[in-house]
Structure formats: structure tokens, C-alpha cells
Design a protein that fits this description.
- By secondary structure, the protein is α+β, with helices and mostly antiparallel strands.
- The protein contains 15 helices and 15 strands.
Amino acid sequence: MPCDPQEIGALFLFEKLTPEQLGRLCGAGRVERFEPGPVYAEGDPATCFYVMIEGTVVLYRRVGGDDVEVTRTSQRGVYAGAMQAYLGDRVRQVYNNSMRVTEPTRFFVVPADTFAEIMQEWFPMAVHLLEGLFFGSKNTQRMIGQRERLLALGSLSAGLTHELNNPAAAAVRATATLRERVGKMRHKLAIIAQGSYSPEVMARLIDLQERTAERVAKAPVLSPLEASDQEDTVTDWLDDHGIAEGWRIAPTFVQAGLDVDWLDQVAAAVDEEILPSAIGWLNYTVETELLMDEISDSTTRISHLVDAAKQYSQLDRAPFRHVDVHELLDSTLLMLSGKIGQEIKVVKDYDRTLPRIPAYPAELNQVWTNLIDNAVAAMNSADGQGTLTVRTARDHDRLLVEFRDTGVGIPADDRGRIFDPFFTTKPVGEGTGLGLDISWRIVVNKHHGSIQVESEPGDTRFQVLLPLTDAEEESG
């Protein structure tokens, strides 16, 4: 369609141009009329700059499997398309959204390379300012994003150190006590060996020691009331058989699952005069087994924590792979357990039948960290108590991960802004305002999923929806 310089000059973007500039602009561009339907698609090479002359335009973005409308307007002069063409090859030139028109609409269309040349020739100072603004904003977001990750890493490191310290200290204490008990057991064995015991009696004592160790490994878990009753019964038996300080030995025997029936077997296996020495020797055996169990539990706990740290960081894994989201959630919850604290109850409502999904696991862990951190902060802002529920479920062709907290909630006026960069409701110095922005970009841009929030006081839910399959699998 013919280009009229006067019509073009009436658009607010070009109203300050001279007649000569408008003439050149008309010569370089063209006027096109589009029927209702798509104009360009998100992700395609950005080849043109569009300025609407008349009609109605809709801009939208692809979020997961849905088209989310960003802007709908009939205002003359609105523009879209290759708006960053002046940056050239320094930025990947693709359309950042999709555009369609809902009625016959006319655009003034300028090829991207022509638009870039005109910008650089007519507005060199403006181009430099825009370049500085664009790259400066990118650098600022990247630096603050790095700071956000470092802050999270510091918090996780502190929590991990605290979690590792408990089992490590327990293992050290148990090892020192074990050394003492083994020394006493050697001494007791020497006393028994010096006695005039027949080989048959010694064989029975060794057999009792072996069977005692087996019972310790299979000891049942008793309630406090059951344990107390058992201790009273065992103490009475020891007192009746002349065993000194039976009240000290009884709790150890009960913890190891040794009851009166077992003690009767011991008494029947040895002579009455050596029964006290045999009981003392077996007591050291029981204590030794229990201490070794404690060391085993502590070192296993340390191993699990290290595995969880590796799972959280994904340092030894491929950056993109099929993952079980429950493993990621568990490792993140474990890493943040110190920050969550004892006053907040964590409920896991997992659908274990869900399949593994294609994802960037380290980045999803960052999303879980941000959402859990916000939930904990919301509950701490209330009374420091509450319940964090982490739920997974299938939602049609997507996987749902929901974080629900019983905190103060998000005010209605803030809900539309929480995913904006640098917006935060935390006190100054406690938040950068990039946690949810980073989470949104990881979920939406990198995983083609969606993230949304529902909130009222006492019930806030962040819902992350992730595709069950990637685009290549679907096309294959």
C-alpha cells in the first residue's frame, strides 16, 4: 500500500522528524494491511519493525502449552518487532513475543537492518544511551542474580555445616566411649580367663556373646512407658541374682532387646559363681554393639547429607537430563532444614507415580530454594510457626509442584508485582527482589512451564507447572 509521509508523521514515534526524514522513511519502509490473524511468532528471526497506523493488535507469549496475552491495544503508533535491531549481532535478534491482529490492521513496516541504519545515523547519541541502558540493565541483573545465588549458597552452607556437626560430634563421642568400653571388656575377659573354667564353660560364654550381639541388631523399638516397665523387671531380676548395681545395667539391656527370658538363658548356661562376671562381660558387649550402631548411624547420616548436597548442586550431573522431581525437592528441603527450623512442620504430599521429566535440575533446585525461603519468611513474619506443605500431582500433560504455607499471605495489591525484578516485601537488606523473577525465568523461559500464586492470610500457594515431555520428544 502507498506510504503517505503526512500519515506517518502523525504517529507519535515520528512526529519530530523533518519532511525529508519522513520522505526517506517512507521510501525505506512500506505500509502493509493485515487481515485478522498472526503477524509474527515468538522466537522467529526479528526481520521487521512494526508501527501500527490503525486497527487492534494483541501481543502474547507462550507459557508452557498456553498463549498468555501480554498487551491488547488500538492506540495508533504503538510499535513492536525488531526493537533492538540497533544492537546488531551483539544480541540474538528474535521476536520476544508473538503478535496478531483482531481486525483488519495497517502497519508501517521497516526492515530491521534499515531501522538499525536510520537509528545509528539520525540518533547516534540516543543509540549509545539505549545500548548503555540495555547492557547495563543486563549486567546489573546478572550481578544481583549472582549475589542472590551467593546469599543462598551462604545460607545453605551454614545449614549444611550445622546438620553435619551433629552426627559428626555424635560419632566422635561414641568412638571415645567405645574405646573405653573395649578396654573394660578386655579386662573382664582377662579375669574370666584366669578362672578355673572348663573349655565347655568358655564355649558357652562365647556362644552367649555371639547370640547377645545378634539380639542387639534385632532390638525392637519400645515406647517410653514400655521401656520403663521392662527396666523395672530386669532390675528386679538382676537384684534377685546378686548382680551389683543392676539399675545401671538394666537400661542398656532393655535398649538392646534383652529381657528376663534371655537372662534366664544366661543363668542356665553358666555356674552361679561366675554369673556376675558373665553379666558384666555381656554388658560391655551390649554397650559396644550399641556404640557401633550409633557410629554407623552417624556416619550414614553424614553420607546422606553429602549425597543431598551433591544432588542439590548437581555438580556431578549433566546440566539437562530427565529427573525425579521428588529427589530434587527432598535434597532442597534437607539443605534448608536448618533454616526451616523445628517450629515449622514440613508435610510432603507426593504423587510417587509421576514420571521423570526433562529439566535443568540445578536450576529447578534454585526455584525450590526461592519458594521455600519465601514461605519460611512469611511464616516467621506471623508467629514463627506453621506448616509448609510440598505437593506434587499430575495436571493434564504437566507436572504440578505446589508450595503451600500458613504465613501472613501476600496483599492483593502486591500479587501482580511479585514476579517483577527488584520488587520485594522483605525489609531492606533481607531481599534483592530477584528471587521470584529468577524463578519465573527459569520455569517459563528455560522449562516452558508456568508459575502462579494464590494467596490469602494463612493460605498461600505457589504452583509450578512443568511439561512432562520436551518439544523434541513430542515431535518425535
